[in-house]
Structures are given as structure tokens and as C-alpha cells.
Amino acid sequence: MSTIREQWSRTTPALRRFSRSTAAMLLCVVVAGYVALGAASSGSFFEGPSVRVFLQYLATPILIGLAQMVALCVGQLNLAVGALGGFTACLMGVLMADHGVPAAVAVIIGLLTATATGLVTGVVIVATQINGFIVTLATMTILLGAQYRLTGTRTVDGYSRTLRDLGTAAPLNIPLVFVTALVAAAALAAFMYRTIAGRRLLAAGGNPLAARLSGISTDRQIVAAHTLSGLLIGVAAVTSTASLPGVNRSVGGDWLLPSFAAPIIGGVALTGGSIAVFGTVLAAFVTRLIDAARAQFSLDPSWVNLLIGLVVLSTVAGGRLHQTRLEKITPSPSPDGGAQPLAHSGGAR
Q: Would the pTM of this model clear 0.70, i.e. be above it?
């Protein structure tokens, strides 16, 4: 009996913390939104085929959100998420359809290409000391041109039937591509929270100066973050290629906003030093629900982007206001080593 009480006493504080977290709020939004869409569709949204389609096209938002989250955790931005994903998807499609490369080999080549591109991006940022925003913007432009070079105006759809079957496979109406995204999220969470390399990434993003004084190379962490981001984008490209009827130059064109929306809404700080894997996954659910509502009520797609953009802006603004309030109430160190309250703008009393 005492053991049960001890376990409950340890669990209760964690449950209280979770109930006040962003993830708990997003979980409530996901449940309420899903129920509302189910009621609006007279229950058809709860049926097996609808659930399968919903989850099948949720895999990519989860993966690109995680890819952007990794870059954000070291204080970087990755504007090339969509371009790299689209290029990788087209590369795999062309290899399979035009050159007869087996699906497994094409997938490996795609993953290695995306990972190597992330690595090169990180190295360029560190070597040139140019802001990551500019470097990833240039990378995006180059990759868009390369993607068009690969496919032109055509749609590549003659690739491996095996890969297509994996993309549509859904035992118990749970798509394998969705399971892949969840496995990637779990692996990333374990890496970031349980390994020394993951903790170094967070340390370098949270306080670069303290990290350097502790012997952690912030340059290496930037390279590692972009490399890992590239790998996740490669996985997203694989799931997209498997799920879509064909690939063309439009693949990845609408990935940039969702890639930022998921981690930011999920609770990741733009300043670095934090991650929120569960929150990012739930935020991807929210964006997918918004897209499903657009299809349900035949809304203009531009309204979806407007709504997601407003939610992202509100989240960033709310986080900034919260940080400002914390800075005002946090005591500042006094010259003698103690702490004293911050003076008000009208002068100290």
C-alpha cells in the first residue's frame, strides 16, 4: 500500500506540470477538433477510410516539423526544408522511374543526399560565419532549380510499385508512413533527452557562451543540427514519395510554413535551447485538422495559410510577452552578490 502511495506522490507533481503545459492544451485542442469534425461530417470522419487518409497525410507535417525543431534548438532557421524535401523526392522518383534503380537503393540514396546536404549547409554556415537564414535561403534557391532540372514540367509516376504499396499500407487503418513518423519522433526524443550528443545540442542553443566555456564546440553543434535536420527531411521525402501518386516540381512547395508552425505552436523557443517533440507532433495534428476542415467545408486553401500564420504569430507574440513579464519579476543580482528587485521605469522606491 505504501508503495502505491509513493508512486502516486511521485506521479502527481508530473501530472500537474503536464496539465499546465502547452502539450496538454494542444492535446485538448486535438481531441475537441477531431470530435467537432466528426460531428460535422455525421460520423464519416470517424470511419476507417477517413482515419487512414487523415493519418497518411499527417506523417509529412510531423517529420518536417521535427526537422525544423532540430534547427531551432541551436538557434538556427532552415528555410530549405521544402526545397530539400522536394528535390529528394524527385531524385528518388527519377532514379526509380527513369534509371530502373531498385526502390531500396533509391531510398538510401535519397536519405544520404538529404543528410549530406544538411551537413554541407551546416559547414558553410560555420566556415563563412554567414547567418543561417541567408545560407538556407541560398540553399533553397539552388535546390528549387535542381528540382526543376530533374523533372521539368512533368510528373514522375512510374516508380516502384513496392514503395507505393508501403505508402498505402495501413494495417488496422493505421498507415505505415504515420507509424514511421511516430518512430522517428520517439527516436529523436530519446536522442535529445537521453544522449550526451543531444544534451550538447540543447546546451549550445540555450547558452552558447556557457557551452563554449564547458568545452562544447558550438560550431560542431550547428553542423550536427543541420545534418540531423537533413536526415529528417529525407525521411519526410520518402514518406511523401510513397504516399503520392507521383512527384513533380510542386512537391515540398507548401512545406515551409507547416515546418515552422508545428514546433513554434508546440512550444519551441526561437532563441534555441529547447525542444518539444510531443508538442510538435500535437501541433502537426492541429495543422492537419485545419486542413481537413478546409476540405470538409470547401474553404479556399489561402484561408488555411492565413489561419496557420495568425496562430504562429500569436504564439510567438504570446511567448515574447511572457518572457518580458518574467524578466520584469526576476530579481537582478546586486553588487554584493545578493539579489534585489528590478527598478520600475518610474524609478526605484
A: yes
